[in-house]
Design goal:
heterotrimer; A mainly alpha (104); B alpha+beta (504); C alpha/beta (485); B: 504 residues; alpha+beta; 3 domains; 3-stranded antiparallel sheet; 36% helix; C: 485 residues; alpha/beta; Amidase signature (AS) enzymes; two-stranded antiparallel ribbon; 15 helices; binds magnesium ion; binds zinc ion
Amino acid sequence: MSESPSERISAEVVVKVSRLARLDVTPDEVQRITTQMAGMLEHFADIDALDLSDVEPMTQPYPLSNVFREDVVVTGLDREEVLANAPAAEDGRFRVPPIVGLDG
Amino acid sequence: MTTADSKTQDSGIQYDMSKNEIKVAPNDGSYLLDGYELVCGLEVHVELATATKLFSASANRFGDDPNTHIDPVTLGLPGALPVLNRQAVELAMRIGLALNCKVQPSTFHRKNYFYPDMPKAYQISQYDQPINVDGWLELPGGKSIGVERAHLEEDTGKSTHIGGTGGRIHGSDYSLIDFNRAGVPLVEIVGRPDIASPEEARQYVTELRQILVAVGASDAKMEEGSMRCDANVSVRKPGAPLGIRCEIKNVNSVRSLGRAIEYEARRQIVLLEAGEKIRQETRHWDETDGRTHTLRSKEDADDYRYFLEPDLVPLNPDQAWIDAVRAALPMLPRERRLRLSQATGAPADGEAIMVVVERGQDDYVMSVGEAGADVARALVHVKEAFAEQGANPTVPAADLAQMIIMETGGKLTSTQAKTVLAEIVANGGGDAVAIAAAKGFEAMDNSALEAVVDQVIAEQAEAWSKYCGGEQKAMGALVGAIMKASQGKADGKAVTALLLAKKG
Amino acid sequence: MTTHANIPTTAAAIADGVRSGALKAVDVLEAHLAQIAAREGEIHAFNLVTADEARAAAARVDADVAAGRDPGILAGVPIALKDNMCTRGIPTTCSSKILEGWRPPYDATVVQRLAAAGAVAIGKTNLDEFAMGSSTENSAFGVTFNPRDISRVSGGSSGGSAAAVAAGFSPISIGSDTGGSIRQPAALCGVVGVKPTYGTVSRYGLVAYASSLDQMGPFSTDVRDSALVLEAISGHDPMDSTSIPQAPLSLQHVLSQGVEGLRVGRITDMPSGADPDVTARLEAAFDALKAAGAKIVDVEMPSMKYALTAYYLIAPAEASSNLARYDGVRYGLRVNATDTNAMYSATRTAGFGEEVKRRIMLGTYALSAGYYDAYYGKALKVRRLISDDFARAYTKADVLLTPTSPIVAFPVGEKSDDPLAMYLCDIYTIPTNLAGHPAMSVPFGTGAHGLPVGVQILAPTLGEQVMFKVAASLERSMIAAGGAK
Ligand SMILES: [Mg+2]
Ligand SMILES: [Zn+2]
């Protein structure tokens, strides 16, 4: 299953991924990133041939379950201290530029 | 997410509501619109009535000053880690069990997307292994609506849009974010598309609300946003495959829900009849113009990059916990209605029982019965006279019982009973015997009544002969005169019976 | 390594002196601040030295001692903190422009526990931005140079913390290790570095890189000091759901125990690529342990060769999500724009460095629709294979021994244009992060150019005691051979 780097990832996908990640990329950068990512994915192709159909995914190293907090209020953070760290605040709230679109 | 721009373009089709007829088939409750049937499933988000948030110890409280219930987890500060609220899990289990779900081992995922009121740029939610699956909710009329799942997730903060046109997101100058609501525990109840009419949708939400309140899981107020409802709507010709569905958001009351579904179904039918295709999309219900509007198309597919939340561990309530939650569940509205129906003989989905159970006064009605009064009468009186009283009426059950016993024993006419009851309710209780006596509501015994009847027959000979000749209209005149002569103390039924007996 | 007379070089000796009243914490601190003044200019271990706060903390320790209150097991010991753990009111940058100037409103659990133990935090150390790198060259605030040879890198990502200890700025420091970020710079700087079992040290307040792999741990000049620090910072924390519910580790008492009869595993199919000077030191370590009575056994790790791939899919995937919160809304950098979406992109594009962007892109790709199964999903299964390999190996061996890094400290700039070459630096350290097991690097002599070489000891989950026993044994053999500590 050896695909060539260019088949592993396209410039179009790089553009889509950068949009999902909210990172701006210039057309020049798209070419460079595509080549670089293709090279890495090629290196990571060593797992392509593994038959993993019977293998359980491992998501956490130590098997814990049912870890809870009791439902008791603890005093939280001071609003003024928090807002002092904010790039912009107004009326006790965080201020942001107009919201357009939802998640496109 | 329920933020929306209502000024985006509609389908452009004008529709004359008056041209359409809604045909309701009499028995099976199916709903046909120009030969199409409606297929609707509801997704309901409810905020849980916990003291703290789903993953942190900040207060879960509505209506306070902005950003006063915040902590590192709520704000998604670097280094903050979520820890699951045990009570939220318990309330989610109550909801699941009340909706006949299977409570199963579950996990949390991250749903990744950017939005200013979502602090971490991901929502922690249950994805392929939700806590509750495969339940149902029975509508009062007996139809069962499937519940696919009821899962735990966290709420977002709230944005306020400043400038532009009247607080709308579109065209605003900037927005302000309050994170008090961020991280509040939600259960999302995903119903199966078993709803076949706007009325069923209304019944489903009303019933669900009552269940949520009954089990103490939520105050479930649509107006305050602690219960939020999205509707997936499609239409099809009976027997045809499922149509393309649209998701309707921003529905803020049970009444709007029915209107929105009906509007959307009609819109889709008009498009289909015109030979056009339905686009799968999210639409926004606009209360002011009574229409749905395109919010965003699903063509630009969301890519939420779900993956297992590595900061949380699996949730696997043991059977003992599940059993304890189940055992502690209160009687649910459906059982309450059945109990009252059995006790009174009134239909379980009839108005009186529906109203009284919704008010939570059914226990009270039962206790009036236990105090020796006729439960059916108690149901009627409570339904009629206790609208202002809460689930725990101030009138002692024994006082109402005493009044009903006098009424059913013929010591008060129904008119007198109403008068006495009104005074009892106004005073938060009272002795019916004393009130009746003070008002001069002497019980008129049968011999006294017979004397009055004989006197009226003698005075109204013409009416009497007409009555005996079969003219029913004449009876009205006779009864009216008897009531007048008895100064309202005569019982209507007894008068009718006496007249009938004397006629022979 | 401090040059000041009368000030001991280890945390254990300093704490003993301060607790007994023989030493003043303020004097200990001033000696170390003087050492910083002397060499920080050429090394750049710190993003920030918090001398004022440290002086106040040292004075509090001395006051406790004077008043007869228990000042804690790390009384008066200066400690350097990697600049990716939250310190209340003190800037925490992760060496990124995106967090420049941010002052956390809370302390990490580890920071609280160190303070409670009487340690004196002296500053925040440099790192590869968001702990992504193996050389501490990917920092928005400049490179940290290796105190052993300032033309070379200190390793990474906890290069600042490793260099601080190697340069004598503090006897101990804290780092974080996601794929080797404590052990590799420890090896390159010639100090001890420990990554404990995942879940042993709370991650609360550690700025996340890859949540299922991140773990904090100590740097020190000798094995005992690392044991001491771990005793102070380990143990269950209810603020971290992945924290193992157990008492703090107890390690110091095992250090004098021998290794007679212990089975030390040699991985026969370990990925090759280590330089000969490095493998020579590994062989010397096997010999030393054999001489001390341990048994050398062969084990196989057939899936170990896939670890790098699994890691560079899993870690970036988690990172892409963990770093999404840097959006310019609530804290840190904001680049203004006409709407929120444009603001996010402008802020993140300006705020993140190249390596961070590269991993965010890679991780976003590995998780996105249509690619999840081929990349992220598959990597999780490979992770299981590696974990299973370890489980089998630990039925035959009590610990495993490998090089920590395939190479000694390399010249600054040598690998900065080749991400894959840099990733290969972590080939021996990454597998334990995937499995969640403990591992540590102990200095074991020198290789090419007289530069330090570290040997890595791997142990099964919660096997810290046996791991420290072996580390202490190696350390004793080095001292016996006349090697410098
Ligand atoms: Mg949904
Ligand atoms: Zn939801």
